[in-house]
Every structure is written in structure tokens, then in C-alpha cells.
């Protein structure tokens, strides 16, 4: 987990611990993480789960957040490349799946059979 994401998760932990409302502007993975942590803290305080289980679930939530945020960033990056390619580079009108279009393969590393 990168330091920026870890710091944000730490901030959300404190807010979830005190049962604050969900902060605005969170990405979907951070929203899910916040809600998960709020539930874990509440269940721990109520005695519905022990300390070891709470720690294990928090660790699993952090791992899931890291995976989801990595996937989200990859999707955003891929979307930007795709939009740039479609709008700026491909002004010649060639369809991306045409045999003449080798640029797509070179830039994105995507095999034509997958398009």
C-alpha cells in the first residue's frame, strides 16, 4: 500500500472509530473501506467479535482496499489512454481492429484478437 493511500486509510479509521458520517468525495474503494471499518469497530465495541477477529478483518479490509484502489487507478489510466488514442491519434479514421492499425498494439500492448 502506498504511503498516500495508507495515510488516507488511517484518517478514515479514526473517523470510522468515532462513527462519523462518511466523508464526501471518497472513491468507491475508500467508501467501502470506511463502511467496513465502521462496522468492524461497532461490532468490536458491542462485543460481537474479539480483538483477534477484528484485527484480522481490518487487515483483510486494508488488503482489499489496496487491490481495489490499484484496479481503479489502472482503469482510470487505461481509459485516459483509450480516449487519447481514439480522439487524437486515430484521426485518420482507421478502425482500431484494422490490420493497418499497429499503433494500438504498440502503445497499449493489446492484441488485436482481444479487441
* Global outline: elongated
The portion of residues assigned to helices is 55-70%
Structural classification: mainly alpha
Give the overall average pLDDT.
83
Oligomer: single chain
Number of helices: 4
* Structural Rg: 21 Å
Strand content: under 5%
Number of strands: 0
Distance between the termini: 32 Å
Q: What's the number of structural domains?
A: 1
Sheet of most strands: none
Sketch the topology as an H/E string, one letter per element. Answer: HHHH
**Uncertain parts:** none
Structure description:
The radius of gyration is 21 Å and the shape is elongated. The chain has one domain (3-114). It has helices spanning 3-17, 28-46, 51-89, 103-108. α1 (3-17) crosses α2 (28-46) and α2 runs antiparallel to α3. Helix content is 69%, strand content 0%.
Amino acid at each position: 500500500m502506498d504511503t498516500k493511500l495508507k495515510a488516507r486509510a488511517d484518517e478514515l479509521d479514526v473517523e470510522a472509530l468515532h462513527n462519523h458520517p462518511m466523508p464526501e468525495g471518497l472513491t468507491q474503494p475508500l467508501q467501502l473501506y470506511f463502511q467496513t471499518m465502521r462496522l468492524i469497530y461497532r461490532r468490536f465495541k458491542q462485543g460481537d467479535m474479539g480483538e483477534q477477529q477484528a484485527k484480522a478483518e481490518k487487515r483483510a479490509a486494508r488488503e482489499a482496499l489496496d487491490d481495489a484502489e490499484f484496479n481503479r487507478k489502472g482503469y482510470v489510466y487505461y481509459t485516459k489512454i483509450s480516449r487519447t488514442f481514439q480522439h487524437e491519434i486515430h484521426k485518420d479514421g482507421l478502425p482500431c481492429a484494422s490490420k493497418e492499425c499497429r499503433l494500438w498494439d504498440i502503445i497499449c500492448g493489446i492484441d488485436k484478437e482481444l479487441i
